[in-house]
Write a structure and sequence with these properties.
The structure is a homodimer of 362-residue chains. Helices cover 27% and strands 28% of the residues of chain A. The first copy, chain A, is built from nine helices and 14 strands. Chain A is globular and about 65 Å long. The interface between A and B is large, with 53 and 53 residues.
């Protein structure tokens, strides 16, 4: 079936094009960037933009369509050749300059600075194989002091979840008991995070943010290590089988009223990033409001700085500090929640009294 | 993300389990075998069966559930270990014997013969990476003279088609012209057959059978080479962009009334085999009834006998023989079709006259 694969030095590999096809056809991804750019023509008009890791060049073309004066489209791989062709077929050769090199090696004419950096640098769970380091370096080198980053912020969220596709149905699969199969499947998958779709209804508790990355001022060092320790009350009776990880990217508020967010979580439209799941070694049956305590560490790999090691630790809810208020059923948390609720209600009442009689009462 | 993948010698590889999951979850595949076996309990009762390439052992378990006296479940890979566990959890250790070796090396006690061979040996376009050679060798060695093969027959079909996912939409993709992208995508894919889903409505003409393999008597040599030369009239105006290849497997008619067929074509339920498409170097615009002439050669690869080379030749419809009747619009074919239709009608009339007055007329 693969008799003579003609070597194709024009691109890095055949897979490149398939990956770009997957990304282009990811509608939440492509249409969010398009909306962000084309809804902000008033901002982009006559701006100088840099698109880092431009791939096929589609984001650069959106910028040119939005009125950018100049777009530097930087692409390290041989895909830069294709980007040039696509720029040409859209008649933007005057506006878009495709630069075929690493962004770290780019030198702009007269050392000019750019008004905005547009980049789709996100990998699985945001940082996997990520290009964010390169984007940060380029920002420090090329972005004007008051320049804009697209996206501007990125957040990683984590929440406990069930993973029914790896547990259910195998006990009675077409009338056959295949528990050994699902056990080995899970065991194999427990060695590394699994990229898969998780449904909203399979989340077992509120998500917590692992980090909040401000793309305008974060440093490469800040991206080395993240950690969150958390307790959450289960939102229903269920089977706690893994930790679900996803991210959101938030774009600058400019001329549009609406905040534009690319949400890759279970509640959003499915994307090619799916979600990332760390499976527990053993499932745990939890009851509604039962506290689920965990710690997640995400550390850059020592040998390959483009990779991260994810480590999930299961904690004893008795031994760690709970958030305030906490959704769990432990006595202290129930009491604190009740008191805090009272205070909020009191404040609201007081507030409304003040509002009703704003001046005369003083 | 892949920090320390623990080597797992229990299975050949992690991917093994994922591939078996894909196959198990392929409902047309699994439920067709289940139906064939469990609808034929009267046949399977007390039979001795061999399951070649048993994988997880699910087909062997279906046979045991159907009443087989003995099942030899042969698996060359380390998956045999898992099959044993699954057999055990279904309490069929007395019936099913998992044999961990190549079927070519199997020796059965007292050189007994089996009543039936059950096997799911099919690869992409039926023969890719196929295990059919092994099944044929095992049949000659182990199957009783009047034994049954499940499946009993297999047919490869080919039909001209459109491949809109590689052509359409890219001319105006989110407002951007990306023809260069789709051109390179197609060019990359033209080097080898592409496994993908084709819709029924994208077929441009009736399918033709490349072969008809009778599993009860075919030889390994007969599997070396297949060729079909064909002309078909386009069933509508359209864009001829590739040749679509798929297969059907037909199971023995035993105690059930209904012929059970596993159809992997565009008209069937989608399977993990999808369809295989050979792309044309350039699309051709065709009009309804326009003759489409081609030759498809499928030859075993000289170096790797488990692979086949597929070659599509586009032919001049003027220069080759057309089937009779032919669906194309060429004068000769239209005339022949008209004459044949007349003859059929005449024969039908004559027949009905005979039927109405069966004896007196003589």
């Amino acid at each position: 079936m693969e008799p003579n694969i003609v070597p194709n030095s024009y691109f890095t590999s055949y897979e490149d094009l398939e990956i770009h096809r997957l990304m282009l056809e990811d509608d939440p991804r492509t249409s969010t960037y398009r909306k962000v750019i084309l809804n902000n023509k008033a901002y982009f008009k006559d701006k100088v933009v840099m698109d880092i890791g431009c791939g096929t060049g589609i984001l650069s073309i959106f910028c040119a369509q939005a009125g950018a004066k100049k777009v530097y489209a930087v692409e390290a791989s041989n895909l830069a050749n294709l980007a040039r062709e696509i720029v040409k077929e859209n008649n933007f050769e005057e506006i878009i300059e495709v630069i075929h090199c690493k962004v770290e090696d780019v030198v702009l004419p007269d050392n000019i600075k750019v008004d905005a950096i547009v980049s789709e640098w996100m990998g699985f769970y945001l940082l996997h194989e990520g290009m964010l380091d390169s984007v940060v370096v380029a920002r420090d080198k090329f972005l004007k002091e008051d320049g804009e980053m697209f996206p501007q912020n990125a957040v990683i969220y984590v929440a406990p979840c069930s993973v029914p596709s790896l547990y259910e149905k195998w006990d009675n699969f077409y009338g056959v008991s295949m528990s050994s199969f699902s056990k080995h499947l899970r065991s194999d998958k427990s060695h590394k995070p699994e990229v898969m779709h998780i449904k909203s209804e399979d989340l077992l508790g509120e998500e917590v943010a692992l980090n909040w990355i401000n793309l305008r001022d974060c440093t490469v060092e800040e991206l080395n290590s993240y950690s969150v320790q958390h307790v959450v009350g289960a939102n229903k009776n269920g089977r706690y089988q893994g930790l679900c990880i996803w991210f959101e990217c938030i774009f600058p508020e400019l001329t549009t009223e609406q905040l534009i967010v690319l949400n890759t979580g279970p509640a959003g439209e499915p994307t090619h990033w799916k979600q990332t799941v760390i499976l527990l070694p053993e499932e745990q049956i939890v009851e509604e409001k039962e506290p689920i305590a965990f710690k997640l560490d995400m550390n850059r790999d020592g040998e390959n700085s483009r990779r991260y090691n994810l480590q999930l630790s299961l904690l004893d809810p008795e031994e760690i500090e709970h958030p305030m208020p906490c959704t769990c059923e432990m006595t202290k948390c129930v009491l604190i929640s009740a008191v805090m609720k009272q205070q909020v209600e009191h404040a609201a009442q007081h507030n409304s009294v003040l509002k009703e009689e704003p001046i005369d009462d003083e």
